[in-house]
Design goal:
Blueprint: E1 8-11, H1 21-39, H2 43-57, H3 67-73, H4 80-86, H5 97-105, E2 109-114, H6 118-127, E3 136-139, H7 140-144, H8 151-161, E4 168-172, H9 175-184, E5 188-192, E6 203-204, H10 207-214
Parallel strand pairs: 1-2, 1-4, 2-3, 4-5, 5-6
C-alpha cells in the first residue's frame, strides 16, 4: 500500500525525467555554432566564449534559463523554437521513467516543478508525449520569476494546489533546488543522485528507489 498522506508526487524535469543530452546540445552546441557562424570564428573559440558568458550569470539568476535572453545577448538571428526543435532528436527519458510514471500515476496526482523555461518544457512535453501524465506543469522561472532555490516557490505552488507541504513528495537531481529548498517548505523531498555518489535517507539513485521511499513516508 502507498502512504496515504501523500497526495501529489512532484518531479523535476531535466536530469530527473529527461536525459541531459538535449539541453546540453542546445546550450553547448547549438548556441556556440550560431555564434561561430555569426562571428566567423571556430566552434571551439565560440564555445569557450559562450560558456564564459554563461558562468558570469550563473544558475541562480533567471537569465541562465532564458533562451531568448541569450539569443539576444549574442545577437543571433534564430528563433527559440527553431533552435530547440533542431535538437529535438536528442530528447530521451531515462530508462526508469516510463514504469515509474505508470506505477505512481495509478495512486497519485503527478506534477512537474522545473527551473526550465516554458520554451524548453513545451518542446520536451510535446516530443516525449508527457502531456497527459501531469495535472500541472510549473516552470518556476517563467511562472514565478524565481528559481527553485527560493523556498517561497514551493509555498506558492502548495497554495495554488490548496495542499499542505507534507502532502507532496518531490524528487529532483539538484541538491539545493530539489532537496534543500522544498524541505524548508515542509515538502517530503528527495535528491536523485544517478551517479551514486551520495547516500542517506533522502537520497535515491533512481526513480525505482524513489517509489520505494514513498512507502516509508
Amino acid at each position: 500500500m502507498w502512504a496515504n498522506k501523500i497526495k501529489i508526487v512532484s518531479f523535476d524535469m531535466d536530469g530527473t525525467l529527461v536525459e541531459r543530452g538535449y539541453v546540453d546540445s542546445v546550450w553547448l552546441e547549438g548556441i556556440p555554432k550560431l555564434y561561430a557562424e555569426k562571428e566567423g570564428i571556430s566552434f571551439e573559440e565560440a564555445r569557450a566564449y559562450v560558456e564564459k558568458e554563461y558562468k558570469k550569470v550563473g544558475e541562480e539568476r533567471l537569465e541562465w534559463y532564458d533562451i531568448n535572453y541569450w539569443l539576444k545577448k549574442f545577437g543571433l538571428n534564430c528563433s527559440w523554437k527553431k533552435l530547440l526543435r533542431k535538437y529535438a532528436y536528442m530528447l530521451r527519458t531515462y530508462p526508469d521513467v516510463k514504469t515509474t510514471l505508470e506505477n505512481l500515476g495509478k495512486e497519485y496526482e503527478m506534477i512537474i516543478i522545473s527551473n526550465a523555461s516554458n520554451e524548453f518544457i513545451s518542446v520536451e512535453m510535446e516530443v516525449l508525449k508527457l502531456g497527459g501524465k501531469f495535472s500541472n506543469v510549473f516552470s518556476t522561472v517563467s511562472d514565478f520569476k524565481k528559481t527553485k532555490k527560493d523556498e517561497e516557490v514551493y509555498h506558492e505552488i502548495c497554495r495554488l494546489l490548496d495542499i499542505k507541504g507534507n502532502e507532496i513528495a518531490h524528487v529532483g537531481d539538484n541538491w539545493n533546488f530539489d532537496y534543500v529548498a522544498p524541505s524548508k517548505a515542509g515538502i517530503n523531498a528527495f535528491y536523485l543522485d544517478r551517479e551514486g555518489k551520495m547516500s542517506g535517507k533522502h537520497v535515491v539513485k533512481n526513480l525505482r528507489e524513489f517509489e520505494e521511499k514513498l512507502n516509508e513516508l
